[in-house]
Amino acid sequence: MGQTETPDARRRVWARLPDGTRQALADLPETDLRTLLLDLAATRAAAVTPADLMRRWRQDRFVRPAGGDPRALAAVEARIWHLLPAPVDGVELAPVTPLGTSSAVAPVSQNRIVTTMRTTEIISDATNTLAIEAATRRRHQSATGEIHLAAAHRHLRAQDFGTGRSAHFRLFCVVSSARDTGSGATEARLLTLHLSFWQRVLADLLPAAAPQLRLTVMDSPVIRERLDDTVLPALTGPVPIVEEPERVRGRGYYTDAALRIVADDDGQTVELGDGGFTTWTRQLMGDAKERCLVSCLATERLTALARPAGVSP
After folding, report:
1. CA–CA separation, 165 vs 79, rounded Å?
2. pTM of the entire structure?
3. pLDDT by residue (tens digit) across 16-72?
4. Which residue segments constitute the domains of the chain, with CATH numbers given?
């Protein structure tokens, strides 16, 4: 169920129930609470009519189909997979992830997440889930190992994005995790991998849309040095890397450095993707030396601008 209710609405609902109900439910063992919720769902589902389904299909933004041509989208994503570097493993994620995946490792309100009745939540950001998989794989590696994962996944978020905007969308996500080796060398290596990959994708699919990768260093002199002497000299592709020191959004969510992927659409700048260093695998593994870089691109937005071979606009 989508958790978009206001505090006033929550207080109103709890006020209708007997005193102590909230604490009693909170104290239930996980399996008992799940049984209770599933029983309530079955009762409510038994009262649903075909007419109810038609009404919900028209009115519920969570269930309406996405716009756009899925054949064009599939062609774009197939091309992105083809361009993915060999060290990056593809992952086909489940539709759900453990409850608290986003709010436990990142400063994200659970109210933005669609929570299920089975102590899971619908994936709202696949980079969080890929970070869990990366941390799991890293535990089976030596300290010098690295994990690079990618997934193309449809996301669902509870917040209202405005008229005409879908509650669900597809992102192509990349997550890397490796141990710090000092002097920013690990961060430089991960940045170079991600940025060079997105350069290839944009050059291949959006050559006429003036794509850019915008990079912001966040209060890290070491990353600043590695950017100048290691990262930027290695990125000689046709898509420019433009520094964006004035960026404020994402501070507190990302650390050390953040990136944006943008392109031009009839004179308007369109944001296609985002990313940066996070503390997620560090938290998940309990190891302050772990470094994690995430980045993603909205493939439906990219498809609206791209003209993949063999697919009509």
Report:
1. 26
2. 0.90
3. 889 999 899 989 998 898 899 889 889 999 999 999 999 999 988 889 999 889 999
4. 7-59 (no CATH), 70-305 (3.30.930.10)
